[in-house]
Amino acid sequence: MKRKINLVGTGTLTISLPSEWVKYHGLKKGDNIEIINEGNKLGIYADKILPTKEIIKIEAHGPKRSIKRLIGNVYRKGFNEIEVRYEDSKVIGYINDSLYNLTGFDIVEQDTHHTILKNIANIDDDEFDNTLRRMFLTTISLAKESYKAIKEKKFEDLKSIVKLEATQNKQYMFCSRIVNIAGHKKFKKPSIIYLFLHRLEDVADLLVASDDEMDLLANEDFCIGSALELAALEHECNEERLPALNK
Fold first, then answer.
1. Domain end call among 93, 119, 145
2. CA of 187: how far to CAs of 43, 146, 182, in Å?
3. Are residues 64 and 34 in the same domain?
4. Which of 32, 139, 151, 189 is the most buried (most CB within 10 A)?
5. Which residue, among 229, 234, 235, 165, has the nearest Cα to 201 in the 3D structure?
């Protein structure tokens, strides 16, 4: 998406916000948004959290990864009931696989053309702090195991840490959902917390090598660089700094 830079007055540069994004977040004149400098790009985040909605209906088609991502997205947004409609019955398997990441949800109705997923558990949002801490420690474990495998050139061991990444992803989904539901009632700066969660999840994704990347990992120069980066990650990501995020 491209936007033209406009000049207002003698020295103020502005760009317009996408109308679809503005409507989705219910923004209006006078509302605040969060802008974060991310080097060669700016992150723009709605400071206003959407109210929790009870039911959403979605159409599922396409590859497995896209369908699981779609279900995960509406889960994170805070919906308590998700009706998934589909034409291809193989989508049922994709939905069942998605359940692992949907803490508190279960299938309450299913047939060849639709499935209803519903929140059946009362989850205390105070559990956020404990889950965030576990997510952080899981990420550190991923870094340590990856570093060890690369340092010792045991590249096959990298495949075994995929389960750790799956655990971290589940923790990320839960924490993101709580941030969207609780919003400013619990967090002073929910958009910052959400960004942190997303970045932490990105780190885990980078630490899990796909089969296509195994040849790259076998390159000695790449291994040395990766080992140094992981060592720096472990040093910088100190869990004692987490409380400062919400100040």
1. 119
2. 19, 33, 8
3. no
4. 139
5. 165
Q: Packing angle between helix 127-151 and helix 220-236, nearest 10 degrees?
A: 150
* 49 DSSP assignment: P
Residues 229 and 133 in one domain: yes
Distance CA 243, CA 2 (A): 37
Averaged pLDDT, 67-84: 93
Domain count for the chain: 3
In-domain check, residue 19: yes
Residues 236, 172: one domain?
Answer: yes
**Among the listed residues 92, 24, 84, 91, the one whose alpha carbon sits nearest the alpha carbon of residue 58:** 84
Band (60; pLDDT cuts 50, 70, 90)? very high
φ, ψ (nearest 5 deg) of residue 94: -65, -40
What does the alpha-carbon distance between residue 243 and residue 188 come to, in Å, rounded to a whole number? 12
Model pTM above 0.85:
no
CATH number of the domain where residue 61 is located:
3.30.110
Domain carrying residue 19: 6-46
Judge whether 1 lies within some domain.
no
Write down the pLDDT at residue 53. Answer: 60
CA distances from 188 to 62, 98, 183, 245 (A): 38, 31, 8, 9
- Residue 33: pLDDT band (50, 70, 90) is confident
| Start-to-end C-alpha separation, the chain | 33
Q: What are phi and psi of 192, to 5 degrees?
A: -70, -45
d(CA 174, CA 149): 29
**Is 247 buried (19+), middle (13-18) or exposed (0-12) by CB count in 10 A?**
exposed
